[in-house]
Each structure stands twice: as C-alpha cells, then as structure tokens.
Design a protein that fits this description.
This protein is mainly α. It folds into 2 domains: about 40 residues; about 50 residues. The protein contains 2 helices and no strands.
Length: about 90
C-alpha cells in the first residue's frame, strides 16, 4: 500500500499530467483554428501536386499528338526542301 507521501506524489503527477494534456490540446486546437482562418488548408499542397501532374500529362499527350502530326507531314516538308534546291541554277541563284 502507498504511504501518504507516495500518494501525494502520485496524485500530484496525475493532476499535472491532466493539466499538461489539457493545455497541449487547447494550444493544438487554437493553432489549427488560427491556421484555417489565415487560409492554410492541409490538403492544399497535395491538390496542387495532383493538378500539376494532370497538366503535365495533358502537355505530354499534346506533344505526342504534335510529334505524330509532324511525322505525317515530314515527307512533304522534305519534298519542299528538295524543290527549293532543285530550282537553283549552278551558281546557287534561283
């Protein structure tokens, strides 16, 4: 059984622990509320990252489409380039 001195120490530790837990809880909730009032949202960076990832995927798709279209017209461009030089006379003049 606990002596009266040990009982007082245990009771004091329990009370101090309860007060500490309550103070930390209040501080945590106050900081969380203040951050929300000033526009901080914990999921905001994740949402921004997901939006950037979506935008990058769209850009990659667009680049693939452009590459496909360039591959389709490449023979025509080469033909035009050939005709440009074919029309020059021997002195390099047209």
């Amino acid at each position: 059984m606990l002596t009266s001195g040990a009982f007082v120490i245990v009771l004091t530790l329990i009370i101090m622990g309860s007060i500490t837990f309550t103070i930390l809880g209040v501080v945590h909730l106050s900081i969380k509320n203040a951050l929300k009032k000033h526009g901080y949202h914990p999921n905001s960076p994740q949402q921004t990252y997901q939006q950037l990832q979506t935008d990058l995927n769209k850009v990659a798709d667009n680049l693939s489409d452009i590459q496909y279209e360039l591959d389709e017209i490449r023979p025509e461009i080469l033909q035009l380039e050939f005709l440009k030089y074919a029309n020059e006379d021997g002195n390099g003049k047209q």
